[in-house]
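Annotated sample (chain length 151).
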Amino acid sequence: MISFELSDPDVELYEAARGLLATTHHPENHRVAAAMRGGSGAIYLGLHIGSKRLNVCAESSALANARMAREPSISAVVAVSMDGEGQPQVTNPCGLCRELLRTYGTETTVLVDSGGEVGKVHITELLPYPWMRAAETEWNTLPPRAAETDT
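Output written by the structure step:
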């Protein structure tokens, strides 16, 4: 469930990402910036790195920075991109980042754009069915069956 009751730390996280993008934005090479708060309270920044054939998301570079600093957990994340008028605004994580964030932060909250209003959601709501190999689950999945109908 989305919450529109943001805290001062949520706004601080946004401002950190916004500040990074404002100083580093490039329409092809650096389109998105991210800020991530670790369980310790420290903020880690990340920047989209792009070329004609390869892109690395800002969230993944922020996560790499957090892990290199030996941050044990991630509590919150936000990504920003430029709007049509050149102003940084909250942007929602792509599918790859949703999977990556959930892998490293099962209790993470994510600031999201909900039709023009910024709210926050739990990472499990962004990716309710994570990608997992069958051997990684704690259950056995039954084969699919068609529903029985009364005829």
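Annotation: Strands lie at 32-38, 43-47, 49-50, 55-56, 74-82, 88-91, 109-114, 117-122.
Annotation: The longest helix spans residues 8-24.
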